[in-house]
Structure prediction request, 211 residues.
Amino acid sequence: MNKRFSIELFDTVIVANGTFPMHQLPLGQLKHAKTIICCDGAIESLHNLGIAPTVIVGDMDSIPQKHISLYKNIIHHNPDQNTNDLTKSIQWVINNKFSSVCILGGTGKREDHTLGNISLLHQYRNKLTVQMLTDTGIFTPILHNHTFSSYSGQQVSIFAQNPDLEISSTGLKYPLDKLKLQYWWMGTLNESIDTEFSIFSDEIVVVYQTY
Prediction:
């Protein structure tokens, strides 16, 4: 990773039940966090690291019985089958008056879960500041115009849920000029040309940056 590029550290972290992070940046974020919300299926990996979560959230269909007994005092059971455990965790964060959160383990294992979790970032950003860190980069949903810290050569992709949304940019190798991202691939594989780049949009878009 280029040393001129740094990530924001969040005090509140959700650990989802995707691929548990191995990269130094998401692991550093986990060690920095003061509040750790663990989706029920992720408790095994967290426990094996010797890290005790603040709360375990979910419908408890993926947690071994031994951990239910061990962590019974911090389990928040939410049986709602109309949302996934990540969304249940986000709701816990909101209900407990946190204003920002970083998601780890939101991708990997199954592609359908990965796509679903990334698409939910649009929904979450309406309620709080959120980022998702993976082993390769960062997903950041933005409400409108935003300038990102970057470095020359950093790979950048942009995703919009509204195919009629016009998006513009500065500081990218392939500039966007009121471009409508009608297909998911259309905003991918761009590249930063400086220490920062800007995205201009009237609605929420999700921006991905590699480390």
Observations:
- DSSP finds five helices and 14 strands in the chain.
- The chain has two domains: 12-135, 142-210.
- The helical segments are 24-32, 43-48, 65-70, 85-95, 111-125.
